[in-house]
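@channel anyone free to eyeball this complex?
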Amino acid sequence: GAGVSQSPSNKVTEKGKDVELRCDPISGHTALYWYRQSLGQGLEFLIYFQGNSAPDKSGLPSDRFSAERTGGSVSTLTIQRTQQEDSAVYLCASSPGHGLTTEAFFGQGTRLTVV
Amino acid sequence: AQSVTQLGSHVSVSEGALVLLRCNYSSSVPPYLFWYVQYPNQGLQLLLKYTTGATLVKGINGFEAEFKKSETSFHLTKPSAHMSDAAEYFCAVSEPGGGNKLTFGTGTQLKVEL
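replying in thread with the prediction:
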């Protein structure tokens, strides 16, 4: 596609349920990032995938959060046993590589509301 | 560890006036610096970035920023605000070799008034 695509755009879930958020990066981009944007916390890094390397999971807030990237392309962020504090906009970004001459392109995000 | 401070969560300017959005950073190594803009209901878009070389960086839509190492600052400016500049602006840093992993400031909402 032309840009980073995220689905769903909005998700309302009940506390305690699991949710999966999907990110389709720009074709050919080897690097993929997940961020969370919430009121009062700003934008927080969650996880970073680069090619076939082990992902950098240093930003995941708890073991309820996990992410995978299949075939070096699509990524899924899974939140288990959702809590109200998980309510936020989850942003995905991709870039052609990890060099700093490249730019990270962001999707429009998935707005998650836990009720 | 890196951190970014954006002074003023909300800034209001008149159309045609100077825009100045402040960003200060803390980093143990010389960082790479970025400004992103987020228009309502849209994703983040890169305005400009500093990696190496000239410390005055020009970006899209007439914005520019200057890296001042002595002040650990990377303030964003535009000489003349336009109504279309109303958006939220985020300053971010990354560590060289850190793979574009960004640490963001809390953002500044820019309002442009007639």
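from a first look: The mean pLDDT of chain B is 92.
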